[in-house]
């Protein structure tokens, strides 16, 4: 069984761990997290260090690959970019919980997480680093572009097109044939009956555009999420300059 690591030791990381353990395809050796002290124990697994310890960890634990367990779509991209700078050929695996249902001829990229109770219907396409959360559904012929996500209990009709970095929040219902652009957030409990473009926040029943949003803007919690993402970009630029 191949050894893998999880990037991100938050609550989302614990759910990803559960998916990997239940699926039983990989052996999890621990977490990698820049914001938690090395040696901290999470769900019985240690934080082994930060992304910059990767070359050492790859050799010590014979790492085959791993998953980025970051719920925020944009921050997940920043972590992926950081990993690729350090280990250009790093192998990002998928995990599908055994209580998820995957339909006929579904295509998946890399680095995605399909959680318990999720349903992905026939001919759907899931690009890289996506999240289909607990009890959510992607209808037939739906397409999720890279770094997009469906929160718990989202119900989407067939032929959904969800753009890069876009997030559909808790309990949203989406009718058949909807197109949602990039970097867009659909708020919790919305009923989506119209198409939406890029960089907007929409919610309500029926959902309407409430305002514009910026790239990387937090949508999962407090403003600290945006600050952490911005700091991460800044740190990467400095570290890249120092190493060049």
TrEMBL record:
Gene3D superfamilies: 3.40.50.20, Hexapeptide repeat proteins
Domain PglD N-terminal: 3-83
Record-linked InterPro entries: AcTrfase_PglD-like (IPR020019), PglD_N (IPR041561), Trans_hexapeptide_repeat (IPR050179), Trimer_LpxA-like_sf (IPR011004)
NCBIfam families in alphabetical order: NeuD_NnaD (TIGR03570)
Assigned protein family: Belongs to the transferase hexapeptide repeat family.
Protein name per UniProt: Sugar O-acyltransferase, sialic acid O-acetyltransferase NeuD family
């Amino acid at each position: 069984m191949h050894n893998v690591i999880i990037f991100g030791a938050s609550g989302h990381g614990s759910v990803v761990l559960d998916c990997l353990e239940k699926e039983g395809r990989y052996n999890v050796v621990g977490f990698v997290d820049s914001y938690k002290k090395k040696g901290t124990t999470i769900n019985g697994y240690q934080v082994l260090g930060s992304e910059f310890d990767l070359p050492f960890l790859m050799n010590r634990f014979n790492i085959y690959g791993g998953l980025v367990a970051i719920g925020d779509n944009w921050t997940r991209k920043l972590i992926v970019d950081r990993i690729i700078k350090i280990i250009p050929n790093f192998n990002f695996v998928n995990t599908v919980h055994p209580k998820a249902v995957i339909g006929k001829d579904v295509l998946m990229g890399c680095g995605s997480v399909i959680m318990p109770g999720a349903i992905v219907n026939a001919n759907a396409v899931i690009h890289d680093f996506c999240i289909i959360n607990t009890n959510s559904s992607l209808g037939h012929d739906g397409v999720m572009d890279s770094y997009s996500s469906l929160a718990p209990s989202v119900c989407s009709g067939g032929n959904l097109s969800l753009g890069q970095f876009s997030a559909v929040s808790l309990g949203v219902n989406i009718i058949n044939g909807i197109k949602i652009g990039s970097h867009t957030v659909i708020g919790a409990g919305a009923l989506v009956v119209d198409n939406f473009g890029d960089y907007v926040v929409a919610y309500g029943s029926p959902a309407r555009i409430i305002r514009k949003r910026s790239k990387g803007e937090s949508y999962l919690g407090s403003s600290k999420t945006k600050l952490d993402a911005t700091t991460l970009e800044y740190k990467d630029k400095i570290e890249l300059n120092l190493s060049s």
